[in-house]
Amino acid sequence: MPQVLLNGEYVASEDAKISPMDRGFLFGDGIYEVIPCYQGKPVGLNLHLARMNRGLSEIGIKYHADSEQWTKHCDFLQSQVEGDAVGIYVHISRGADSKRFHAYPDHITPTVFAYAFAIPPSQSLDREKAKSFKVVTKEDLRWQRCHIKSTSLLGNVMHFQQGQDAEKDEVILFNKQGFITEAAACNVFVVINGEILTPKLDNQLLPGITRTIILGSLEKHGGFIVKEQDIPLETLNEADEVWITSSTKEIGAVVEVDGRTIGDGMPGPLWKKAQAAYNEYKFSF
Ligand code: PDD
Q1: Considering only CA atoms, which residue is closest to atom 5 of ligand 1?
Q2: 92 and 175 together in one domain
Q3: What share of the chain is helix, strand, coil (3-state, %, to 5)?
Q4: What does the alpha-carbon distance between residue 64 and residue 45 come to, in Å, rounded to a whole number?
Q5: Owning domain of residue 80
């Protein structure tokens, strides 16, 4: 039975219990992270912890994740799962109160939970073997604080399900102005005329750590033209490549959007170069 972390203790997953009065359960009142690890090494651990600490402070949960302590937790939790590709899920809720009341109580202790799970192996650079994705597009109907990695994911879950109902892998979302925001559980990149575009950061999308590391890796590698800007949905009609990125997918090449084939229907040449640059630098952020 794998062990999980609950409130500072490692316990068998079947013994990890939290109260139904926990505000994470009642209100989705919490912040989470998913930290990928390959061959025992976390990717972007400090970036993940910094984003989590920012989110916690933004919603007034009094918990600060310490890098040294979480390095140890990641090491231990990874040992609980088979395989070289492991995700660490971290969930900090505001904690359990004696009654259900919307306002933040100031006397409760945050609930801290983490466990490890297998994620897909790092992407193959072989265009024929790399996992590719089919997506549909939908208007983004989520809340206006998508930059917070909140555990209140119903909006994302409902959008993701739209993709599943269409038998596709993901859903690329666009706002009322017709600009791409992100996908239900990923950030989005579009390659057009040799340029790599991704939506600029604001309240409409999560500042993905994979996105940050990709941008940093492309810059370190050099030779790419990268722009963070508004991307009209119609750009997808002309795109040479489309990528979705996340901690469990790295750079995922999209080969179909709303039934239209992208490029030659296989992960594209820039995808391969970008994923190679990401592999080269991913442990240095
Ligand atoms: N999802 N945007 C959304 C809405 C996400 O849920 C995610 C990640 C991302 C990419 O962020 P990052 O590169 O930091 O993983 C963007 C995680 C993996 C999840 O909910 O499981």
Answers
A1: 185
A2: no
A3: 30, 30, 40
A4: 14
A5: 3-118
Q: Are 140 and 256 within one domain?
A: yes
* Together in a domain, 93 and 155: no
Domain contains 201: yes
CATH of the domain at 251: 3.20.10.10
The CA-based angle 16-22-24, given to 5 degrees, is 95
Nearest CA to ligand 1 atom 1: 185
Residue from 88, 206, 251, 285 whose mutation best tests the ligand 1 pocket (most atoms within 8 A of CB) = 206
Among 92, 118, 144, where does a domain finish? 118
Whether residues 71 and 208 share a domain: the answer is no
Q: Is 149 a catalytic residue?
A: yes
**Mutational test site, ligand 1, from 162, 247, 251, max ligand atoms within 8 Å of CB:** 247
With respect to residue 49, please indicate whether it lies within any of the assigned structural domains. yes
Instruction: Kindly write down the DSSP assignment for every residue of 144-170, as one continuous string.
Output: S-TTS-BS--HHHHHHHHHHHHTT-SE
Tally of domains within the chain: 2
Residue 188, amino acid:
V
Q: Which residues does a 6 A CB cutoff place in the pocket of ligand 1?
A: 34, 156, 182, 185-187, 206, 208-211, 245-248
Would you write out the chain's pLDDT as a tens digit for each of its 285 residues?
Answer: 899 999 999 999 999 999 999 999 999 999 999 999 999 999 999 999 999 999 999 999 999 999 999 999 999 999 999 999 999 999 999 999 999 999 999 999 999 999 999 999 998 999 999 999 999 999 999 999 999 999 999 999 999 999 999 999 999 999 999 999 999 999 999 999 999 999 999 999 999 999 999 999 999 999 999 999 999 999 999 999 999 999 999 999 999 999 999 999 999 999 999 999 999 999 999
124 in a structural domain: no
Closest atom of ligand 1 relative to the 184 alpha carbon? 4
- Kindly name the residue from 134, 138, 149, 249 that is annotated as catalytic: 149
Distance 71 CA to ligand 1 centre (A): 20
For 228, the token pair is 């963070």
